[in-house]
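Box 3.1 A note on notation
Throughout this textbook, protein chains are presented in two layers. The first layer is the amino acid sequence; the second is a token string describing backbone geometry. Keep the layers aligned when reading.
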Amino acid sequence: MTTQVALVGGSGKLGRIIHEVIDELDGFAVRNVLGSSSELDELDGADLIVDASTPAVSIDVVRAALERGIGILVGTSGWSQERISLVRPLATSAQSGVVFIPNFSLGSALGTALAAAAAPFFPFAEIVESHRDTKIDSPSGTAVRTAELMAEAREQQGPFRAPHVDQRARGQQVGGIPVHSLRRPGVIARQEAILSGAGESLSIVHDTIDSAAAYAPGIRLALPFARDARGIVVGLENIIDIGIGLRA
């Protein structure tokens, strides 16, 4: 049986990559593509919704999917734990699942997991993320997810030290970690998590060089997972077996 997918935001960069993956994947087919002028009723009849829209639109798409009992895979950026909490009550009672993937890159998921694993051992941390100048939101969803997991990993040690964060130039705090966002042409995506302690520092860097090639393997894994998921799952690291325990 073929899983019929409603693809929201299919004309964007990520949406086009997802569309190409679905076209090549056995057992899945794009039923319809929704754009900025589409009505949410066009989601009706789909077996799975894939959201690659914008942060402003995404929350309505997620709510519509849950209300219809249709599973949804969310690749749209901007879903922090605070924002996810807005739809968590609806997801708890729904007969379907929501899978949030801040970044479909396997290397990015590994970088986030490594940063979280290192977090308990260093009292200082900062994140610098770079994306092309057309990216709407900042910090990136990947940086937010990384910072949240790093902060959770330090529950027993206490929060990271972040001096002078009252100054705007120190970045936006996420989980007590200063996050610095660069938006410039000539880059696809780059993230560096910098952890520091007495006499040493550790940098964990991930570069996306070709977005289509980097995201496709993660999309192939996430589609069947999202089709069968229940409740809320956050992060590709919960789909692949990294061997490092992280919270959903």
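Residues 3-104+211-238 form a domain with the Rossmann fold fold (CATH 3.40.50.720). The chain has two domains: 3-104+211-238, 106-208.
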